[in-house]
Amino acid sequence: MECRELDIQFGVDYYPEHWPRERWETDARLMEELGVQVVRMAEFSWSRLEPEKGRFRFGWLDDAIALLARHGIRTVLGTPTAAPPAWIIAENPEIQPMDANGLRRHFGGRHHDCQSNAVYREHIRRYVTAFAGHFAKNPNVIGWQVDNELGNSHGDLCFCPSCEERFRQWLREKYGTVESLNEHWGTVFWSQDYSDFSQVTAPRATAAGQNPSQLLDWKRFCSDLVLEFHQFQAEILRAAAPDKFITHNMMGFSEKVSYFQLGDKLDFSSHDQYPGGHFREGQNELRADAQAAELDFIRGTRQKSFWIMEQQSSITGWEVLGRAPKPGQLALWAMQSAAHGADAIVFFRWRSCAVGTEQYWHGILPHSGVPGRSYREIGQLIRRAGPLLRQVRGALPQSRAAIVFSYDQEYAFDIQPHHPQLTYVDHVMTYYRALFRRNIPVDFIREEEDFSRYQWIIAPLQYLMYPELEQKYRDYVRRGGNLVLTMRTGVKDAYNRCMCQAPLPGGLSDVLGLQVPEYDCLRETSVEIQWDGRTYTGEKWSDLIEPTAARPLAVYGSEFYAGTPALTVNRFGEGRAYYVGTEMSPALADRFVEEMVSQGLEPLASTPLGVEVTRRVSGNRRWYFVLNHTGQTQYVTLPPHWIPWDGQRRSTLPPFAVDVYTEEEEEA
Ligand code: GLA
Ligand code: ZN
């Protein structure tokens, strides 16, 4: 079941167990009046649902579900495995996770569980089997969420003996023999050869340095473990209730588990969207691009529409707080989620909690329970956008450009960032932001995606390279695609070993028409770049490029390589291959996107900085969302054939306002 098949647009995350029963009726009535159609519950309620081993107390949840149903509200239930209760920890303290120093993380917060531990799995099997069996036949329960924000656990998952043993099994399956592992991990270095798999350890804290090949496999293993942990529960839920959907609340670019692979196992993806941030800086227009990217990324996990399972509903914070959302901002943020492909938006949380870690992660209702500004603003949003979301269900942006996103590349740069400030996601974002500023829709795709669906593929930091991927890029350009490759392409093989057969960028040299015999890590400096007589900046890294066939677009303007190419383009087959030898400053990235636009990549509309335009397309119908992320009135000129979806066409957009337009394409 995909989410476009569900007629649900708005909901809230609800914790009835935090409040006296006498209040539930008021909550349900206020929710109904607000337009809430769904609640998510129970993903942290283990101690109240199984207070003692095998003694299940599902009655209160049955009552809450039934009461909400009387108000027309349906339920999504979460499994509570991100917070095993104290009695389980007392019985089996060994399920508490171990950090890289071999120390246990203790009870008293959440995520105090090891995901491989067999004893914990038995507790989960008992609970989830009873839970799924009990609620399977309840027609008001429409779907499940397994655990909560999987991967949002420990710094680097768990290093306990159980996880270590699972890692060894994973390595045995991957390499077969310990000789093969030695070869692929390069254990000849620093005398790390193993003579038996039993000697291999989880990469705990070492005295000095670590093996990059071991670390890469460890990160892949951790992702696989989380996926298997999810499947373990999902299979129980599916077997008990094949008619209910399974989704998961992902966290944008969080990297602990591959959301592409997780998405494959879900009916649809969900995401938790907190633009005000969890202790983040700058609750203003400057984050609009990052928010947009996370939404596009979540859509990319399945190339389908999705849900927001937690959308910010007021001030956020644990020990310290973020800014109060300004009037209009909550609705703007929710509309931005819809603008990028959300079919339903569930607000976190219904009411600010009086107790516990998240007392200051505010809900729609304040602590007092008396409806205030958030309730009013979200109510207005629901009344306006409910009919819109019903129409746009399933519609997607129809992007002509895509960014290749790879967890493996990210892991490799986590392990060796090269430059102290280089991160994979930030580097990817230099491209995304420039496209965002021009209102050019873009998809995030995995390496396995069919590239031929796109006219433009941007593939940043293709650092780990292997023959199949190389062939895909080659074929894509040969058949007429526009490919953008960057610094650090083709440096290593899939095992994190440097490739030595040819100068960089290795096998793609002829596609790019260049070689990179040298490079420079820009420590505490940046490099000038000249393009058409104007000066820009490159950061963190310079590739020293020797063209064999490529044409320079821009050259370095400083350093000992001044005058040599920094950005190039090469015709190969029917297509073009660009190479960007540095991390572009925003102005340089804007100039680069100008080049793309001049080669036929069309923006949706031209707007002032801070005003975003997105598109959703279904059949011959298109919806355009125009979002003013700034606190100022903005003046926009939109294509005259766009028809206002509601209200009047206007060229002045008040602070934080959102306008929606439609367009019908003539039938061919
Ligand atoms: C996450 C979790 C929620 C809650 C919120 C606020 O997104 O999924 O359980 O903790 O953050 O901190
Ligand atoms: Zn463990």
Q: Can you describe this structure in just a few lines?
A:
The mean pLDDT is 96. The chain is built from 17 helices and 24 strands.
Protein architecture, described:
The protein is an alpha/beta fold and 668 residues long. The chain has a ten-stranded mixed β-sheet. It has an eight-stranded parallel barrel with strand order 1-2-3-4-5-6-7-8, surrounded by five helices. It is globular and about 75 Å long. The structure holds alpha-D-galactopyranose (GLA) and zinc ion. Residues 97, 114, 116-117, 158, 160, 162-163 line the site of zinc ion.
Distance between the termini: 31 Å
Strand content: 15-25%
Bound molecules: alpha-D-galactopyranose, zinc ion
Major beta-sheet overview? 10 strands, mixed
Largest sheet strand order:
10-9-11-12-17-16-15-13-14-18
The number of E-state strands comes to 24
**Overall pLDDT level:** 96
List keywords for this structure.
binds zinc ion, 24 strands, globular, 668 residues, 31% helix, 17 helices, binds alpha-D-galactopyranose, 10-stranded mixed sheet
Topology summary:
Elements: E1 10-13, H1 21-34, E2 38-41, H2 46-49, H3 59-70, E3 74-78, H4 86-91, H5 118-135, E4 141-145, H6 161-175, H7 178-185, H8 212-240, E5 245-250, H9 259-264, E6 268-273, H10 288-300, E7 306-312, H11 329-339, E8 342-348, H12 373-392, E9 401-404, H13 407-415, H14 424-437, E10 442-445, E11 456-459, H15 467-478, E12 482-486, H16 509-512, E13 514-531, E14 534-547, E15 551-556, E16 565-572, E17 575-580, E18 582-584, H17 586-598, E19 611-618, E20 621-628, E21 634-635, E22 643-644, E23 652-653, E24 658-664
Parallel strand pairs: 1-2, 1-8, 2-3, 3-4, 4-5, 5-6, 6-7, 7-8, 9-10, 9-11, 11-12, 12-17
Antiparallel strand pairs: 13-14, 13-15, 14-18, 15-16, 16-17, 19-20, 20-24, 21-23, 22-24
The chain binds alpha-D-galactopyranose and zinc ion (ZN).
